Amino acid sequence: MLNERKIAVIGFGSIGRTFVRLLTAKSHYIKKLAELRVVAVADSKGMVLKPSGFSDYELIKLCELPLSGLRSLPESLDLDIDLLYSEVQPDIHVELTPANYETGEPGLSNIVNAINNHAHVVTANKAPLALRFSELMDLARKNEVKIGFRSTVMGGTPLIDMLLSIRSYSVESIHGILNATTNFMLTEMHEKLIPMEEALRRAQAIGIAETDPRLDLDGWDSAAKIVILSNVVRREIKLQNVIREPLKVELSDIAECLRNNNVIKYVAALEPDGKAYVKPMKLSRRDPLAGVDGTLNAVRIGTTIGEITLVGKGGGRIETAHNVLDDVIGVML
Ligand SMILES: NC(=O)c1ccc[n+]([C@@H]2O[C@H](COP(=O)([O-])OP(=O)(O)OC[C@H]3O[C@@H](n4cnc5c(N)ncnc54)[C@H](OP(=O)(O)O)[C@@H]3O)[C@@H](O)[C@H]2O)c1
Predict the structure, then answer these.
(1) SS3 assignment, position 37
(2) Residues recognised as catalytic
(3) What are phi and psi of 48, to 5 degrees?
(4) 43 & 142 share domain
(5) Based on the domain organization, do 222 and 105 belong to the same domain?
(6) What's the CATH code of the domain at 233?
(7) How far apart are CA 317 and CA 253, in angstroms?
(8) pLDDT of 1
(9) Same domain, 273 and 321
(10) From the CA of 115, how far away is ligand 1's center (Å)?
């Protein structure tokens, strides 16, 4: 069939399932562009394969399984990415596994394997890109495939697309509020004068913070994002070179800031001299980032022809799944 593409979905949790549901909901529109067939779905415990492609009904039934539930199906196989590739030869590999900022695994090996098998890659997993951005891009170029990663930073706002479109001038600096959980917590602390532990409990209660929030509070999530943004604008920095200061703010710090008409924000930055960091910073109320509250994200980009400020949603479940689908459509056009 003309323009037929086979998709493997690796990682079938919150984003994997939302993406698959979206794919079925939009199938009428997508059919005008291409015949997309999901031929493989994998979680940490198992995988299911169907070379002819799962029907929309079968995909919805998969989404109704409990987490780690693929292995409960009689046709499931042990997770084996080599076997998956030899059995169903996907054209597009959608990587939705959890981020591990020490090793990049399992996403890193999965992505390298996909590229070496000449499959396009779409990933919401930041870790492989934060650790190996230029190597992965070089490998993709060599194998004539694309990597779509617009969901990795500020997924609810087309930031990466905007940065990729900057070609005739240079980006000198980036300052951003790139983590929704910590920004929500700081906003609660400023507005309600509650301690950080209580702000974290509120973030967990509304479902924006993980039970183990260390990736947010220790700055890993923001650091990975500033590395990806810097590499997008051709300023290569490494995750291990980003200085990370964990978020630790006392109520007395907040009170002092309020008295002086300042606010504390958890800022991720790339400076003109190449120094990159994530740290709590006192900002004047006049700073465009100072008024970015709650779960909103923002970036202030200093360029050789002026400053750009973008404020918008970060990546929630729905936004991320839409970005993944946009990238899938993008890599096949
Ligand atoms: N949630 C968001 O709003 C959001 C926004 C932007 C980016 N992201 C990124 O998107 C990715 C997915 O996020 P999520 O919220 O969907 O996470 P999640 O709900 O924890 O789902 C992760 C999935 O990956 C599976 N998995 C774990 N190890 C695996 C392995 N070795 N091989 C295959 N599958 C494996 C898990 O399997 P089990 O079900 O068996 O545990 C689960 O299905 C993460 O990298 C996250 O940082 C998420």
Answers:
(1) strand
(2) 225
(3) -125, 140
(4) yes
(5) no
(6) 3.30.360.10
(7) 33
(8) 52
(9) no
(10) 20
- Cis amide linkage into residue 280, ω under 30° from 0: no
User: pLDDT (tens digit, 9 = 90+) per residue, 268-287?
Assistant: 999 999 999 999 999 999 99
pLDDT per residue as tens digits for the range 39-63: 999 999 999 999 999 999 999 999 9
- Same-domain status, 275 and 176: yes
Q: What is the DSSP string of 131-161?
A: HHHHHHHHHHHHTT--EE-TTSSSTTTTHHH
CATH number (domain holding residue 118): 3.40.50.720
| Residue whose CA lies nearest to ligand 1 atom number 6 | 315
Q: What confidence category does residue 10 fall into, taking pLDDT thresholds of 50, 70 and 90?
A: very high
Detail the residues annotated as belonging to a binding site.
Answer: 11-16, 126, 210
Measured CA to CA, the distance from residue 333 to residue 329 in angstroms comes to 6
Instruction: Read off the pLDDT of residues 116-149 as tens digits, 9 standing for 90 and up.
Output: 999 999 999 999 999 999 999 999 999 999 999 9
Domain count, the chain: 2
% of the chain exceeding 70 in pLDDT: 99
Among 9, 15, 20, 72, name the best residue to mutate to test ligand 1's pocket (greatest count of ligand atoms within 8 A of Cβ): 15
What is the Å distance from ligand 1's center to 105 Cα?
Answer: 12
Residue nearest to atom 40 of ligand 1 (CA): 68
Count CA atoms closer than 13 A to 248's CA, side-chain side: 4
* Ligand 1 site, CB within 6 A: 10-16, 42-45, 67-68, 79, 96-99, 106, 124-126, 151, 155, 315-317, 320
